[in-house]
Amino acid sequence: MKITALSLAVAGALAAPAFAQAGEVKLTTTLKDFRGNDAYLAIYLTDAQGKYQRTLWVAGKKAKYYKHLGDWARGSGMNRAEFDGMSGASVGAGETLTVTAQVADNLIDAGYQIRIDSAVENHDENRAEVKVPLTHEGSGKETAGSGYVSNFRYDL
């Protein structure tokens, strides 16, 4: 019993610094005015080579439409574990989505990017319509999207 308690205490002490090194990032995405159904969005991180790393947020409740968020769908494998607890309603024309995500501090200024894929039923699908480096310098600056996203910004 004492060995188990000691093991748990040591494991907790070792894990605590990892949690302390993650910070909250506020993600704000405003959509353009467009006709049609609400948009599905996938907001995710890629490494310096553009390889998918993890999901930050998915807007849209019906998983059957996630395949239209092409780069994110391929990278995440649409594995539910990749987005459980990180999804919400789709976003309407002209609306703003504001969510927060935990991002490890060591990913900032290390070549990582925040990307957004978007899709609207019976309309265009936009792979990586937003690509923005995850840097301290870029925090608070708006970036225009190339599809349904009017602008995106993150705040560290």
TrEMBL record:
Protein name (database record): Tat (Twin-arginine translocation) pathway signal sequence
Keywords: Signal
A Pfam entry, by short name: DUF2271
Domain of life: Bacteria
Keyword ATP-binding: no
Record InterPro entries: DUF2271, TonB_box_CS
Signal sequence, start to end: 1-22
The keyword Plastid belongs to this UniProt entry's keyword annotation: no
